[in-house]
Amino acid sequence: MLKFLFKTLKIIMLTLLSIVLILIVLVVLFVNFSPEFGGNQSKQKLAEFEKLDYFEDGKFSNLMPTNMDMDFSEAIKMLPEFFKNDPSRRPDFDLPITHRDSLELVTKDQPTRLVWFGHSTFLLQIDGKTILIDPMFGEVPAPNPLLGKKRYSKELPIEVEKLPQIDMIIMSHDHYDHLDYGSIQKLKDKTKAFYMPLGMGAHFEEWGVDSSKINELGWWDEIQADGLLLALTPARHFSGRGLNDRFATLWGSWVIRGESDNIYFSGDSGYGPHFKQIGEKYGPFNFAMMECGQYNERWTDIHMIPEETAQAAKDIKAKVFMPIHWAAFTLAMHSWRDPVERVLAKANEINQPIYVPEIGEFIELDKNLITTHKWWLEPSTSSKQMVSK
Fold it and tell me: How far apart are CA 147 and CA 267, in angstroms?
């Protein structure tokens, strides 16, 4: 009997060990061969980056001390909280989405306007140019659908395949909720030019984008792009798509200045003095898209809490700002409505104009942008939930 038990235990242990080894092999193969992870920097590029004040030992760094550490015990404690089945973290109804027709987007003679796809993805039309900002159209912000939670909305305002010719794509950094391999594959042949922080070009070249289309910028670099002024400005964040490439590419925010409109896109960022510096150098802005969502007290250095978002909008001298980085994915432990409710309250407190459009709605900068109803509540009651002035 004892011999039988030992034999059974041995078989169970060998089976478990085999499963673990198979999983390890699959992970190694996935990390090394999946195109999702992008490319690596050439020695020539690394040598160029070493000349920068914010690059050392193969890594980019923030301009101010930024805590990126979380000890193992704290990370373990956080796991149950992160995976907790909290119904408040996702909408329990279909979000209202305005669907756009491709013919609407080919008109050249209209004032500056934007279409929000949720989270941080925008289509911007300015001075006759059609631009995509952080085009993440995928269903899951992860290298594999099994590794992340799905987008809230089942549909997009317009499918990627129906988008018109794109004059340029502007990227803030290489995290999965901003840079999506599948989206780039669908967009690369209909896009004339790509603008991104230093180092990100390696991903795009790996994915088949012609190097002549790729433009990389460092912080405070400016470039004239088809009649527009683009400037990559600092952000307080980090980068990385794989297991060992954190800080391998730069991250940033963007100034987009046309003939009459001046626009700011924050990308992802913790709060810091860089917002005032950007406002002093490039402000005022008549419209700003400011990160507001996926925050936590454990990582406030790299993601603003909503009250800081409202203050940052004032720092950059925004005539009106829009909270972004919410309403599409759950990447933190707060309720999905928390970002917009808190930022509205703070913006009203400090008299900072704020606008919260529906997904897919035309955001027309020649109009008076005023949030009139809380669409993020049940659609049947949202029109009755007026926003206090």
Answer: 23
How many CB atoms are closer than 10 A to CB 289?
A: 28
Give the pLDDT confidence of 265-293 residue by residue, as tens digits.
999 999 999 999 999 999 999 999 999 99
Q: Where are the alpha helices (DSSP H) in 176-240?
A: 181-187, 201-206
Beta carbons of 168 and 192 less than 8 angstroms apart: yes
Element (H, E) at 230: strand 228-233
pLDDT in tens, 325-365: 999 999 999 999 999 999 999 999 999 999 999 999 999 99
pTM above 0.70, yes or no: yes
The CATH number of 87-382 is 3.60.15.10
Burial 157-184 (b: 16+ CB within 10 A, else e): bbebeebbebbbbbbbbbbbbbbbbebb
Question: Token pair of 9, please?
Answer: 């235990």
Domain ranges of the chain: 1-33, 87-382
Q: Is the dihedral of CA 224, 283, 113, 268 positive or negative?
A: positive
Give me 339's structure tokens: 């970002």
Q: Which residue has the tokens 């987007």?
A: 105
